[in-house]
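re the bet — no i am not wrong, look at it urself. input seq straight from the record:
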Amino acid sequence: MPVRDLSGRANHRTYFYFMIIFIILMLAAYLGGNGYICLRGWQALAHFPPAVRWIFGGLVWLSALSILSSFALRNSRMSASPWAHFLYEYSTGWLVFTLYMALFLLCGDLFRLFRDSFQYGFVCALALTACLLTGGYLHYRRPSTQTVSLTVNKPVAGGGDTFRIVAVSDLHLGMGTPRAMLEQYVRMINGQQPDLILIGGDLIDNSIVPVRERHMEQMLSQLHAKSGIYMVPGNHEYISGLEDCAAFLRRTPICLLRDSVATLPNGIRIVGRDDAGNRRRQPLSQLVAGIDTASPVIVLDHQPVALTQAVEAGADLLFCGHTHNGQVWPMNWLTGRLFEIAYGYGKRGNTNMYVSSGLALWGPPFRIGSRSEMVVFNLSFRRP
């Protein structure tokens, strides 16, 4: 199967236009879905006083538009408060509520074509949506550990049986992922006693403000790996302000790689690419031109859009994030069409590739048809 490479300028433009069209369609679907919910709820409350129906309609549209308030708070000091976290989860969660509630209502309407006496479509849709979202929330709060054992046909200095890497991406720290959850993640990562920690971008969510206000650098500073902690920027570091994020990271043991290469004591090269959204980022061939590829080469790239470049550069391992594996069904269908590898392990030639679904997530606090994960790579090498 050919590797789809989206790193060219023409493909950048195609991807940009696709995202604009996608956003417009999603906005229309969101507003239409809320209108559909409001209409069916209004009909289900036909025997209630008019005031109840008006209150119901008002609550639906207040919930639908609450996401505007959430984003308006993101750069204020209030964004670090528990209330801001609740508003963020509620308002973004309403996106997923709208999706499934509208789908279940539509199924109920189709069922009524055959059983016109069925009068409980709205109640059934509400109950099913509530159950599904509860399960999706619990699933999200219990991230899994994926273990991948690989053999690299290159030697490392000092030998050694295995080299353990913990790789995570998409923590989205801020209003969505608060300090308490970061504490859980730090314990998970340190519990693996890694030789190396890799962070595949989107460590910060939509603003650096709540991260700084909650002093999350204190928790990040508790991460420990013998060979260091390396990270590349993602698109959300750019949304949050890349220079502000870089200044914050300098208060932690995390080394930010932006089109740069780090060499570990055992000779492994970590090649960190800038985010694909930066059209001026260097080609991977240029980054590896000055290094000895006879030693193992690990490439960090937030978005899995330049797989061919990794193969041609002779990378032994490519680690990406960004896709969240769609996060909630049926969005994983879309990511599966958009990316050659939207989730999991793949191999092209001698290049091992892994696209993570992310340790946390963006926005809605649900995992439905995907899972939050930490990836542990156990690498073994050829003897010198």
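see?? The longest strand covers residues 144-152. told u. also The chain has a mean pLDDT of 92. so pay up
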